[in-house]
Design brief:
Structural class: alpha+beta
GO cellular component, one term: membrane
Organism: Chitinophaga tropicalis
CATH architecture of the largest domain: 2-Layer Sandwich
Protein name: Signal transduction histidine kinase internal region domain-containing protein
GO molecular function: phosphorelay sensor kinase activity
CATH superfamily of the largest domain: Histidine kinase-like ATPase, C-terminal domain
Distance between the termini: 16 Å
Strand order of the largest sheet: 2-4-5-7-6
Number of strands: 7
Shape: elongated
Keywords: Membrane, Transmembrane, Transmembrane helix
């Protein structure tokens, strides 16, 4: 995908440069009966000037702004901008003036007339201004847009780096939180000397491999996230045995869909923490995940059971996931939690 974006951007830049260079051809006017393309001094002057303006735009965008403007070397930056301006508004006129000069004439109009003679309409200052004003206007536009686009990109990069730092911080909180709860599950099996403890350890190794490797990515295939959740549910089934009614189902169009890692597990983990108790025969945890038209639907239901106050958590996982949803899917998710004295239900919709 990034390679396709780079190719698209390169093609757009090439198209823009081609149109800009050919602008004198596209907007040129000619008297009736003359050829479509007439090589005149203004035509060549504009071609050369536009080429210099393009070179200045990319020079300013990729070199001058990052190396001087961002480093607060404003004097050097201003000096080079003025130098570029002088070159752009003078070189095209000087070069074409010499190329198109007629024998016995000079490249520019004659000087002021003798005393007592009315001045000609086209004086040298007026001639120079007419020669340069076109490229002066375009230079100002190129300077403005190169600055605006570069600063906008710079701010976007800063925002993305800040977002990534926040996400990494949140992930660093999730991993120990999840590991603590999972080890508790395996410990419970070990205390009972249950043979399923070995299978649970294998499941845990798969879960940890996912956390260490895949969960570091910005987004992962949705199928990987679902496999991870399924391993977690199987781990809980091993711990609880027949003391809980546990159901996990998923379906829909999963191919090609991606999701932020560890964004769903918190609500499922919460259901097992507050919805199961080995001493309670009426424990229910029901998890449904479906995908329709690039939209993911998650429903997690559990019946509340009595647990000791020492097992209550601080709610870090739930609050953490709320923050991650706001950062990763702003305006693209809906979270609704229904709770009463007996049940707890989570409805989450994410536009993938």
């Amino acid at each position: 995908m990034p390679g396709n974006n780079r190719k698209t951007n390169a093609l757009l830049h090439l198209l823009f440069c081609s149109v800009f260079l050919l602008m004198p051809v596209l907007v040129s006017t000619r008297p009736p009966g003359e050829p479509f393309l007439t090589i005149t001094r203004p035509f060549i002057r504009d071609i050369i000037g536009n080429a210099f303006l393009l070179a200045f735009f990319y020079l300013n965008y990729y070199q001058l702004i990052p190396r001087l403007y961002y480093r607060r070397k404003y004097i050097q930056y201003t000096g080079l901008i003025i130098l570029c301006l002088v070159l752009i508004i003078t070189i095209p006129s000087v070069v074409t003036g010499r190329l198109f000069v007629k024998p016995g004439s000079v490249p520019f109009p004659p000087g002021p007339p003798p005393a007592g003679v009315a001045p000609a309409e086209d004086t040298l200052p007026a001639f120079l201004f007419d020669e340069m004003k076109h490229h002066l206007y375009l230079f100002i536009i190129a300077l403005f847009f190169s600055l605006m686009l570069r600063i906008r990109e710079h701010l976007a990069n800063i925002k993305e780096e800040k977002l990534q730092a926040e996400l990494n911080s949140l992930k660093s909180q999730i991993n120990p939180h999840f590991l603590f709860n999972t080890l508790n599950s395996i410990y419970a099996l070990s205390v009972k000397k249950d043979e399923r403890a070995a299978e649970a350890i294998i499941n845990l190794s798969g879960l940890m491999r996912y956390i260490i490797k895949d969960a570091l990515d910005y987004k992962i295939p949705l199928q990987k996230e679902l496999d991870y959740i399924e391993n977690y549910v199987e781990l809980q089934k091993s711990r609880l045995g027949n003391t809980a009614n546990i159901r996990f189902e998923y379906g829909g169009l999963l191919n090609g869909k991606e999701i932020a890692p560890l964004i769903l597990i918190t609500y499922i983990e919460n259901a097992f923490k507050y919805g199961v108790n080995p001493d309670d025969d009426e424990c229910i945890v029901d998890v449904e995940i479906s995908v329709e038209d690039a939209r993911l639907y998650l429903k997690v239901f559990n019946r509340k059971v009595h647990i000791s106050e020492t097992h209550y958590s601080t709610g870090i996982g739930i609050e953490n996931t709320r923050e991650r949803l706001q950062l990763l899917y702003p305006g693209r998710h809906r979270l609704n939690i229904e709770e009463d004295n007996m049940t707890y239900t989570v409805h989450l919709i994410i536009d993938l």
